[in-house]
């Protein structure tokens, strides 16, 4: 029997995390020839994920350069992938999520008349400029997709409303949960002594992340000021903030948190220490997309500091709250979770809508069935 040639294409750390379980699941399937191609839209952060999951790409476009524009990422990705697709002739090209690599990969496959599978399909915020450019990338990728792997029923409904055929939409759960269960360990020891010295047993630690383009400026100042004020109200609250490399984010963080010894500004963490930090935290405050899926799996309430989210399932389930970027609102929501045990437990114990850690196995099984 001729093997199904499946090429996975990814370029950033979030994609790598969510694609890795699928790549590993396909390694053990005799009927599939597993081809891994990375664009390295992010270089160092992607390499960390490849090391954790012991994945050696067959092809590496290595397109990263500091300050690259969206146009550069798109054109480099298209040109590089065209050559590889022509050479390898895959039956299916898998992309994941919403990055510029995803859009370039799907378009390159379409130009060569190669079928496209979109992992984490159907997420929608309803605002094409938020998140930017991710919302547009998802929608553009959907147009040329043959197999839509939707993480939730809500994602499936979004695709149906846009006219995609029901028989090509598959609810799988989110592969980020698969990845998370792979790396979180109960007795994890950090390499960073600052983290090892935090008293997670007796302190309520807030994990803060913020980097969205649309939040840079006064919205981000509001977020940080709210967190700063909450540490002054509660003696047992500490904050760990792995600060994004963007100088604009760093400048705001340094200005707002200057002199606050209960806020620890640290360098960005690799995936494994970051997820284990999240497992030890009390509350997560974030404008990230992926953390809205990961934190509920660990029983951590999530306050989403954005005006809208393409992941409303967590809001509906009660694992996350969309609190916006107004300082008073953020402070009040944190205050509520820290002062009311019932409010905290209601969020911490809500059922995670994003899956059971078996999404990658489902996706591989669907591929086998579709290419019989």
Automatic annotation (TrEMBL):
Entries under InterPro entries matching the protein: UDP_GlcNAc_Epimerase_2_dom, WecB-like
Protein name: UDP-N-acetylglucosamine 2-epimerase (non-hydrolyzing)
Keyword Isomerase: yes
Molecular-function GO terms, alphabetical: UDP-N-acetylglucosamine 2-epimerase activity
Family label: Belongs to the UDP-N-acetylglucosamine 2-epimerase family.
Gene, per the UniProt record: wecB
Top class in the EC scheme: isomerase
Record NCBIfam families: wecB (TIGR00236)
Domain of life: Bacteria
The organism of origin for this protein: Anaerosalibacter massiliensis
């Amino acid at each position: 029997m001729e093997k199904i040639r499946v090429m996975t294409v990814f370029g950033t750390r979030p994609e790598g995390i969510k694609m890795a379980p699928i790549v590993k699941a396909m390694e053990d399937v005799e009927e599939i020839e597993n081809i891994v191609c990375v664009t390295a839209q992010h270089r160092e952060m992607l390499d960390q994920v490849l090391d954790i999951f012991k994945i050696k790409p067959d092809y590496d476009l290595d397109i990263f350069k500091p300050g690259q524009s969206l146009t550069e990422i798109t054109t480099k990705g298209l040109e590089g992938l065209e050559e590889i697709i022509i050479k390898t002739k895959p039956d299916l090209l898998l992309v994941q999520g919403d990055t510029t690599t995803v859009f370039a990969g799907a378009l390159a496959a379409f130009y060569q008349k190669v079928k496209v599978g979109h992992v984490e399909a159907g997420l929608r915020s309803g605002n094409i400029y938020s998140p930017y450019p991710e919302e547009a990338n998802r929608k553009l990728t959907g147009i040329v997709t043959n197999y839509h792997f939707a993480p939730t029923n809500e994602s499936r409904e979004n695709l149906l409303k846009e006219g995609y055929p029901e028989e090509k939409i598959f609810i799988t759960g989110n592969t980020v949960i698969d990845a998370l269960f792979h790396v979180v360990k109960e007795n994890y020891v950090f390499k960073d002594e600052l983290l090892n010295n935090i008293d997670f047993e007796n302190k309520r630690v807030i994990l803060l992340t913020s980097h969205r383009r649309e939040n840079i400026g006064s919205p981000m100042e509001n977020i940080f000021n709210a967190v700063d004020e909450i540490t002054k109200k509660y003696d047992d609250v500490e904050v760990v903030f792995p600060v994004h490399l963007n100088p604009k984010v760093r400048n705001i963080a340094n200005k707002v948190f200057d002199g606050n010894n209960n806020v620890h500004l640290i360098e960005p963490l690799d995936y494994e220490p970051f997820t284990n930090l999240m497992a030890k935290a009390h509350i997560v405050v974030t404008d990230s997309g992926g953390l809205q899926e990961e934190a509920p799996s660990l029983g951590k309430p999530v306050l989403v500091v954005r005006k809208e989210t393409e992941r409303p399932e967590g809001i509906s389930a009660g694992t996350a709250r969309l609190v916006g970027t107004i300082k008073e609102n953020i402070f009040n929501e944190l205050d509520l979770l820290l002062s009311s045990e019932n409010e905290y437990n209601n969020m911490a114990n809500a059922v995670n809508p994003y899956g059971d850690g078996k999404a990658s196995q489902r996706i591989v099984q669907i591929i086998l069935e579709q290419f019989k």
